[in-house]
Design a protein that fits this description.
There is one protein chain. The protein has two domains: 115 residues, no CATH class; 250 residues, Transposase Inhibitor Protein From Tn5, Chain A, domain 1, CATH 3.90.350.10. By secondary structure, it is of the alpha+beta class. 38% of the residues lie in helices and 19% in strands.
Length: 424
């Protein structure tokens, strides 16, 4: 089979990154008894992580992949790994140690300049909640009890609060925390934001925090301001006075300060328009500086228009972001759903809880899955994209294609470098 330049790039990318400390699993605590161990912990976790990188839907397929491994993968996973062995191990891993691995991965990417802001003057983090799937048990007391609408039978929903760096092209997930059974996203925000600042706050990885209306409150805004960061918070009916004043000042304006280019979307065209005011500075919230109204206009093939308006409050100074950058920032906020959450649900079936769901497996698997997502996002959005003849970068490859490339790389030996032309 002819070696393609793409195959060489994929293998080089994997070889360089998977040799780094975040992916050296032997430093984790082995939960198994010393007596009777037949497998090294690093071999088992390497097999599981390779399965995530290649999009294996089940542990049985992970087992088959280790059986068909090429010399490059065989160096890391010496022999076939039974799916039952992984089923027994994964629920018993220590989540705090895996969380530290994710932090290490993100910091390494930041130091390599892979997470610099794209089109914005500073880093921006979006925070939002995410469901991890419906379970038939309470996940050791961490999942919330619910009832199915069609027959009233109970199920338990595992949830988490996540932070995604939406300013970076790769949209990596920085951190997550499980939402307890007796609380919600709002009740988990303060502790989660404190952890986020303790992990990344000392550097300049991000400056602005964006949240949906479900996390908007003065208490949360106070926390962000106290940490010397800026907030952009959506407001709806849960903040009636702020929303009422914002609608009064901005609701009737028809001439936008800025408008984005028309973009194609699902057979339609979309444009976003910005209206803003500083007249509400200090209203109810002493640090409030601006209110934004972003109008999204969608036009179908028949010329019919649909309009949707969203309002935001922020302490960002008026000169920090241009009008065009504000529209980009608001659009990027939805990347936490459209890039990170959508990808995890559609490509890794996160909301269906694949592989195994006993005990703490839902949480421990989520850490490994996030690390796989972050690594492949770096690959498909930066390292595997080339310049077209027009000078523009080609579109990121589809996820299924990336999974296929990774699987091919795991089944071959490390490809040699291309021969260089002789020089006189």
């Amino acid at each position: 089979m002819k070696v393609q330049p793409r195959d060489r790039r994929v293998q080089k990318f994997l070889d360089r990154h998977l040799s780094a400390p975040p992916y050296q699993w032997q430093d984790l605590t082995d939960p198994r008894a010393r007596r009777g161990r037949r497998w090294r912990l690093r071999d088992l976790l390497s097999a599981a992580f390779f399965g995530l990188l290649s999009g294996c839907p089940t542990l049985r397929e992970v087992e088959g992949q280790t059986d068909d491994a090429g010399p490059w993968m065989r160096h890391r996973v010496p022999r076939r790994v039974p799916d039952t062995t992984l089923w027994d191990l994964l629920p018993r891993l220590a989540s705090p140690e895996l969380r530290a691995k994710l932090h290490h991965q993100v910091r390494a990417a930041w130091r390599s300049k892979s997470l610099t802001p794209e089109g914005l003057p500073c880093g921006v983090v979006a925070i939002d909640g995410k469901g991890l799937g419906a379970l038939e048990h309470d996940a050791d007391g961490t999942a919330q009890r619910n009832y199915r609408s069609h027959d009233g039978t109970p199920y338990w929903l595992a949830r988490s609060l996540r932070a995604v760096l939406t300013s970076a092209e790769a949209r990596p997930c920085l951190d997550q925390v499980a939402i307890g059974a007796r609380t919600n996203e709002m009740g988990s925000f303060a502790a989660f934001f404190g952890d986020l600042m303790a992990t990344y706050g000392a550097g300049d990885l991000f400056e602005i925090i964006t949240v949906d209306a479900g996390l908007t409150s003065r208490a949360n805004a106070d926390l962000i301001v106290a940490a010397q960061k800026a907030y952009v918070m959506a407001i709806k009916g849960t903040q009636p006075e702020l929303l009422g004043e914002a609608e009064r000042l901005l609701g009737r304006r028809r001439q936008p300060e800025a408008a984005s280019e028309w973009e194609p979307y699902q057979g339609k065209r979309v444009q976003r328009r910005l209206f803003r005011t500083a007249e509400l500075a200090g209203y109810h919230w002493p640090h409030l500086r601006q209110v934004w109204r972003v109008e999204q206009v969608v036009v179908d093939r028949d010329g019919r228009e649909e309009r949707e308006e969203r309002y935001f409050v922020t302490n960002v100074p008026s000169g920090r972001l241009s009008a065009t950058q504000i529209l980009l920032l608001i659009r990027r906020h939805w990347a936490i759903e459209n890039d990170c959450f959508w990808t995890l649900d559609t490509q890794w079936c996160e909301d269906q809880v694949p592989w195994c769901s006993s005990g703490q497996a839902v949480e421990t698997l989520s850490w490994l899955r996030l690390m796989a997502y972050n690594l492949l996002q770096l690959a498909r959005r930066t390292h595997l994209r080339q310049r077209e003849s027009t000078g523009r970068r080609e579109a990121p490859p589809a996820w299924r294609r990336v999974f296929t490339w990774v699987r091919q790389a795991l089944q071959r030996d490390l490809l040699p470098d291309e021969p260089q032309p002789a020089t006189c």
